[in-house]
């Protein structure tokens, strides 16, 4: 485990961040990576290529191993980013098979039955959207 | 297959200048017919446009003068991996051009009319519902589009190398680091000088890309060619949100998401080209426009992170059509250059056309609109 | 006097020429960048300094003004003395823009950087790149696993966040490795072992670099002193180790090594690796500066004259980004480079520049002998730089192994850029920082040619990932801008 050897901090100044759904309290000025390390959440991302878990390596911005999702934005370097109160930090899990979730506000007015069915199928099934569409093309849809 | 000897390299039936996809494809088609061929490349094979382009394999929206060539090329792409015994990375994904408003739909309708009257039916219009079905992440304001089903993408570097390796297997020679400095016709032979060697051949093919006009002048044909540096950017991997290749009817937007999740964004914005030094410089404010367009059409792109940006040197003719066919001034010289940012898709068929011209003296395609001297009278 | 670059020449866009240029832009606020800024800031000269850290100091003086530690003295006098420099830097006239990442520097003087989710642009007549060093990658089997970090990271976490990791193994070679272990111990951190890979013969070879004029190099004494300090603490030290391998499938579980032909293994859930530092090349490469392979330091570095001027006369490189010289020389080079640019700008005469820089030029030259000695002594093992084992990961971003690269090489990827196109090695977000040197050396081995003939990746902007959203918003920064970023 990582452990802090910092001087005593005033608890009143602490900021709250959420790391993988757990609320933790950290000293202002802490990097996101340090907050994760202290919380024992050292897995920053999943390798997109082989799906293995990876963690920070250099802590100084050169290796890009510490890419996490912060407030919904992926590819943020945890070691270069300082915590801000209310920050949502999540392990980055974008692999070559990940399908984008459909943002609901993007859907247009009520659709004929078959389309909505098709849409939810596209996002619900595990197979890639790309493959589905190619499949549609092949079958002449 | 016999190993290429120096004498074979220095003296061959055909000399091709330029080791891009057109030169490599030409070499492949000639070698296939038993013709001895040497390719001279000043840098390395696929160092320029052919190795760094957007990989778009597009039939949609082609100029009428190119449709037949592009259709023939498209047929070839579908089996190219088998034919070359290589992985070009070709994926058939369809290509959709999005209509952002009624004006766009109007231009699509008139294009449809024109295409139908010529007997072409590969471009199919989509209404809003059909568009959403194929591109669920498209922005709300988009009203429809047009699709070409056979279209897709390939990996440029791999494709060009695939032609090169297949050509080499059949006996073609590729000489890298050989800058052609002088060309002369002596008797029946073309004599081509590089810094250290003289090459000799009966036929000469100009596949020199952004340097095509320079080679053309050495052969004796003047062309009003210009060159520029179209720019591209590619993102870090994103969750899959677009299967088809995407373009827009009237906006500089063009992107494709590869199987690995990275998204390649183009759109025709150009940087600064310095061909004498083999370099280009990017214009970041134009890149910013491209970024705005992408987000406007696909809000999910707000979460995209640009990993790399680059540009390549490409040759253009004023009508955005290539120069393709025989030299007008010299016997046994041929041109295939100035593909005006859409020559990658044509690669498989260009080599075939060149090989036909050289071995049979003619081709099944109408090259009249693409002839090298098509601007001569107009400019006077 | 050198020729000026004039923005707005030939093919630059109209927007560019309309913005007002800084005289000098400095990228990086480490000892080199800060010293350059202090020297360059004179009444008539507009200077801007950009740095990606919230506080100035660079690597060595990281957080020296705001240490989270109860007693920063434990980090040593070389650290504490940085406070004097950061204070002078704060008081100088330069416009310091902190917490921003520069992602593009063009040889036309254009600088683009990310600031809080937007892209900002400024232009400068003269540019000083002072982006420092990074640790040399350590491509051994398993180095990509969670639980393995660079030893520099241990120090970074200590300096910035006051974090230690107990019971970790530290392995490799170099003075920085010993310094970090000593700093850990002084703070009460528990170190499982120091596995030293400095080979016996390096001690002999390095002695030949010692000329009669310098019998006791300070750095040697420092290194020995640190090792003694570590030994006295009772920490296990293994010398002359070879064949390092990380144990574990999905997570580091220990380290194995050989010593005198015998294999040993040591369980641990955390391992810190280090084998020296190399210039952080991305900016100088993307700028298209000429680079040389340095046999002494086994790294690429930009070609510079003694004034730090690169192959493009309006661009200078100062400090470790121009070749590893250490903090004191970095500070001296910062001043030298700044004086040269003041000469270039016509602010001072060449004679004035020469005389003001005289002491620093002498100092930097004298330090080079120490460097040769250090570089020889802590020269990293071939097997730790040029991996042989087929499964060793070379490119961490795209997870490309030695075997993948060998295959790409055989398919025609004979040069770094071709190999990259062939295999995707170096295409990931780190832009080749973690694999570039390994690829150059691997290809040189496979081709049986000098590294200098193999070359390095052609790099392009952005030097870091840029979101499409921030790229879509552009604002210009000019010297007239108020110093709003300056909060003390
Ligand atoms: C950024 C970009 C994106 C593009 N996107 C697409 C796309 O999505 N789809 C598509 O279909 N097309 C696209 N294109 C266009 C396509 O890449 C080109 O039309 C095509 O690659 C041209 O091939 P080429 O062989 O004629 O030229 P090149 O690949 O440029 O090859 C010409 C070669 O000739 C060599 N040469 C020149 N002069 C000499 C000399 N004197 N001696 C020896 N050798 C010489 C050069 O070094 C060069 O390697 C794009 C182009 C660019 C730049
Ligand atoms: C992890 C690490 C720890 C080290 N610790 C020590 C030590 O304890 N003692 C010692 O003697 N030496 C240490 N060194 C060696 C150190 O490099 C030099 O001693 C000294 O710091 C070099 O000074 P510099 O000014 O050249 O670069 P640096 O001090 O590295 O300063 C460069 C600055 O530029 C910034 N920067 C880089 N790229 C960009 C960009 N694109 N945009 C904006 N800003 C950017 C960096 O964040 C940094 O603040 C360490 C090196 C490393 C890599
Ligand atoms: S840990 Fe290397 S970039 Fe953050």
UniProtKB/TrEMBL annotation, chain B:
Q: Which UniProt keywords apply?
A: Oxidoreductase
Q: Which GO terms describe its cellular component?
A: cytoplasm
- Pfam families associated with the record: DAO
Gene Ontology molecular functions: oxidoreductase activity
Q: Does the keyword Protease apply?
A: no
**Location of the FAD dependent oxidoreductase domain:** 13-357
Highest taxon of the source?
A: Bacteria
Q: Does the keyword Oxidoreductase apply?
A: yes
PANTHER family registered for this protein in UniProt: SARCOSINE DEHYDROGENASE-RELATED
Q: What is this protein called?
A: FAD-binding oxidoreductase
Q: Which organism is it from?
A: Amphritea balenae
From TrEMBL, chain C:
Q: Which UniProt keywords apply?
A: Oxidoreductase
Domain (FAD/NAD(P)-binding) ranges: 22-143
Matching entries from InterPro entries are given as:
BFD-like_2Fe2S-bd_dom_sf, FAD/NAD-bd_sf, FAD/NAD-binding_dom, Metab_Enz_Cyan_OpOx_G3PDH, Opine_Oxase_asu/HCN_bsu, SoxA_A3
The root-end lineage is: Bacteria, Pseudomonadati, Pseudomonadota, Gammaproteobacteria, Oceanospirillales
GO molecular function annotations of the record: oxidoreductase activity
Pfam families in the record: Pyr_redox_2 (PF07992), SO_alpha_A3 (PF17806)
Q: Which residues form a coiled coil?
A: none
Query: What protein name is recorded for this chain?
Result: FAD-binding protein
**What PANTHER family has UniProt attached to this entry?**
ANAEROBIC GLYCEROL-3-PHOSPHATE DEHYDROGENASE SUBUNIT B (PTHR42949:SF3)
Domain annotation SoxA A3: ranges: 398-471
């Amino acid at each position: 485990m990582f452990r802090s050897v910092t001087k005593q901090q005033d608890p009143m100044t602490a900021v709250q961040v959420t790391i993988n759904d757990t609320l933790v309290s950290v000293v202002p000025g802490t990097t996101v990576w340090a907050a994760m390390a202290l919380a024992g959440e050292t897995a920053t991302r999943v390798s997109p290529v082989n799906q293995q878990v990876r963690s920070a390596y250099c802590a100084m911005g050169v290796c890009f191993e510490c890419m996490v999702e912060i407030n919904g934005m992926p590819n943020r370097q945890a070691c270069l980013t300082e915590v801000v109160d209310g920050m949502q930090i999540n392990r980055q899990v974008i692999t070559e098979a990940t399908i984008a979730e459909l943002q609901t506000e993007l859907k247009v007015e009520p659709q004929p039955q078959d389309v909505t069915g098709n849409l939810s199928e596209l996002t619900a099934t595990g197979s890639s959207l790309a493959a589905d569409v190619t499949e549609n093309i092949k079958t002449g849809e | 297959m016999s190993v290429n000897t120096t004498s074979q390299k220095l003296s061959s039936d055909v000399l091709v200048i330029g080791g891009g996809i057109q030169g490599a494809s030409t070499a492949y088609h000639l070698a296939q017919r038993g013709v001895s061929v040497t390719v001279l490349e000043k840098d390395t094979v696929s160092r320029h446009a052919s190795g760094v382009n957007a990989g778009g394999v597009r039939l949609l929206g082609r100029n009428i003068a190119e449709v037949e060539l592009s259709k023939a090329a498209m047929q070839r792409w579908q089996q190219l991996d088998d034919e070359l015994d290589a992985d070009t990375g070709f994926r058939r994904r369809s290509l959709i051009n999005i209509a952002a408003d009624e004006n766009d739909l109007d231009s699509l309708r008139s294009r449809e009319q024109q295409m139908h009257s010529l007997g072409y039916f590969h471009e199919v219009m989509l209404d809003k519902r059909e568009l959403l079905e194929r591109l669920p992440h498209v922005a709300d304001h988009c009203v429809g589009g047009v699709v070409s089903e056979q279209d897709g993408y390939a990996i440029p570097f791999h494709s060009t190398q695939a032609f090169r390796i297949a050509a080499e297997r059949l006996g073609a020679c590729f000489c890298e680091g050989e800058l052609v400095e002088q060309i002369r016709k002596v008797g029946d032979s073309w004599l081509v000088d590089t810094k250290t060697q003289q090459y000799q051949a009966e036929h000469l093919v100009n596949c020199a890309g952004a340097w095509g006009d320079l080679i053309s002048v050495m052969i004796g044909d003047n062309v009003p060619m210009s060159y520029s540096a179209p720019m591209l950017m590619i993102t870090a991997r994103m969750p899959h949100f677009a299967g088809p290749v995407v373009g827009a009817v009237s906006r500089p937007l063009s992107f494709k998401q590869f199987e690995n999740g990275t998204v390649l964004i183009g759109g025709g914005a150009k940087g600064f080209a310095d061909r004498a030094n083999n370099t280009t410089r990017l214009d970041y404010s134009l890149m910013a426009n491209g970024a705005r367009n992408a987000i406007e059409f696909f809000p999910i792109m707000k979460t995209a992170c640009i990993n790399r940006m680059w540009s390549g040197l490409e040759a253009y003719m004023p009508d955005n059509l290539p120069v393709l066919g025989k030299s007008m001034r010299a016997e046994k010289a041929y041109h295939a250059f100035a593909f005006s940012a859409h020559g990658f898709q044509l690669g498989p068929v260009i080599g075939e056309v060149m090989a036909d011209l050289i071995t049979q003296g003619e081709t099944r395609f109408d090259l009249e609109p693409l002839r090298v001297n098509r601007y001569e009278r107009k400019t006077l | 006097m050198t020729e000026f670059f004039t923005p707005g020449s030939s093919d630059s866009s109209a927007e560019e020429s309309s913005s007002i240029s800084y005289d000098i832009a400095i990228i990086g606020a480490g000892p080199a960048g800060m010293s350059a800024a202090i020297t360059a800031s004179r009444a008539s000269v507009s200077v801007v300094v950009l740095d990606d850290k919230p506080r100035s100091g660079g690597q060595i003086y990281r957080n020296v003004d705001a240490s989270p530690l109860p007693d920063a003295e434990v980090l040593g006098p070389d650290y504490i003395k940085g406070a004097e420099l950061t204070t002078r830097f704060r008081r100088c006239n330069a416009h310091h823009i902190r917490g921003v990442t520069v992602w593009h520097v063009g040889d036309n003087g254009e600088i683009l950087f990310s600031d809080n989710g937007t892209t900002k642009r400024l232009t400068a007549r003269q540019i000083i790149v002072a982006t420092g060093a990074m640790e040399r990658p350590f491509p051994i089997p398993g180095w990509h696993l969670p639980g393995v970090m660079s030893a520099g990271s241990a120090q970074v976490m200590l300096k910035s966040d006051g974090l230690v990791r107990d019971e970790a193994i530290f392995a490799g070679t170099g003075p920085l490795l010993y310094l970090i272990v000593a700093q850990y111990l002084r703070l009460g951190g528990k170190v499982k072992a120091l596995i030293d890979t400095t080979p016996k013969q390096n001690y002999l070879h390095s002695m030949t670099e010692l000329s009669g004029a310098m019998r006791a190099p300070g750095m040697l004494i420092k290194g020995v002193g640190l090792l003694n300090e570590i030994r006295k603490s009772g920490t296990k030290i293994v010398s002359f180790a070879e064949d390092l391998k990380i144990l574990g499938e999905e997570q580091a579980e220990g380290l194995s090594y050989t010593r005198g032909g015998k294999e040993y293994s040591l369980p641990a859930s955390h391992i810190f690796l280090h084998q020296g530092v190399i210039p952080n090349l991305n900016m100088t490469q993307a700028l298209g500066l000429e680079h040389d392979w340095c046999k002494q330091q086994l790294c690429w570095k930009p070609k510079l004259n003694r004034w730090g001027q690169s192959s493009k006369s309006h661009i200078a490189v100062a400090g470790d980004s121009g070749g590893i010289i250490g903090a004191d020389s970095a500070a001296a080079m910062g001043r030298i480079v700044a004086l040269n640019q003041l000469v270039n700008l016509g602010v001072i005469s060449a004679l004035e520049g020469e005389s003001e820089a005289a002491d620093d030029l002498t100092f930097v030259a004298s330090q080079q002998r120490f460097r040769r000695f250090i570089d020889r002594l802590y020269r990293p093992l071939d097997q730790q730089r040029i991996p042989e084992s087929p499964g060793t990961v070379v490119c961490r971003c795209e997870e490309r192994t030695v075997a993948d690269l060998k295959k790409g090489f055989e398919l025609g990827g004979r040069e770094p850029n071709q190999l990259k196109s062939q295999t995707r090695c170096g295409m990931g977000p780190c832009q080749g920082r973690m694999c570039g040197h390994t690829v150059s050396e691997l290809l040189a081995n496979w081709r049986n040619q000098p590294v200098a003939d193999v070359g390095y990746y052609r790099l392009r902007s952005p030097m870091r990932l840029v979101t499409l959203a921030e790229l879509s918003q552009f604002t210009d920064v000019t010297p007239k801008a108020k110093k709003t970023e300056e909060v003390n």
